[in-house]
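Board notes (copied after class):
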Amino acid sequence: MKTVLITGASSGIGKETAYVYAEKKYNLILVARRKENLETIKKDIEEKHKVKVDIFDIDLSKTNSAEQLYNKVKEANIYVDILINNAGFGLKGYFKETDIEREEAMLILNMVTLTKLTKLFVQDMITKKTGHIINIASTAAFQGIPGMACYAATKAYVMHFSEAIALELKKDNIKVTVINPGATKSEFADTAGFEKTNVFSKAPSSRDLAEFIFSSMKKGKINAIHGLKNSLLSFSTRATPRNLLVKIAGKMME
């Protein structure tokens, strides 16, 4: 039975992804800050789906948290077949006004920790000549977004990084998939300060995205955009002047 490690697994997309993989009979390693949430999810999944669930309560927005998590997994003698770098958050506000410490934590979580976890676990996968890395980016990756400048930039990094290493690791039989969801109903909007933004009012559920993540993995996709509307919008960015794209994106987030 294969094991999947999911970061940001205490709620929203990460939690629903855990349930989807458990239903497909994967063992789980769930990682998040909120230990009580993880314990509740672990108990429920193990009772319902009869799979093994390990939990680690670690704040992945802290420096060296990736190494801490990797070492804990190795100490537990668990091999990770699939790594899902889902943990991340956004921050709403103009760059001149946002809190730099909160911004730094976002940069560490969205980019640095994701990169380190990929680097650490992919070495084990290369040894066994099998494995899959799934990184959660966003349709925000396709253009800059006024009022969310750093977040969009982090997701552009995740997308470009994932596409590049997907080709690098192909000869090692390691697959890489980057998922680009649009607005999704989860705790993300509340954390980022977008709970009253129109773009989230008709957003798909976290469960819908979780099922998309699993199906994209099974299909071996490199870049998977969630939803037909988002796919069309992403395709249209190729023909639209970039300064206009940024203005449109800013208006959508108001």
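Comment from the instructor: Residues 9 and 29 are 9 Å apart (CA to CA). The beta strands are 3-7, 27-32, 53-57, 82-85, 131-136, 174-180, 223-225.
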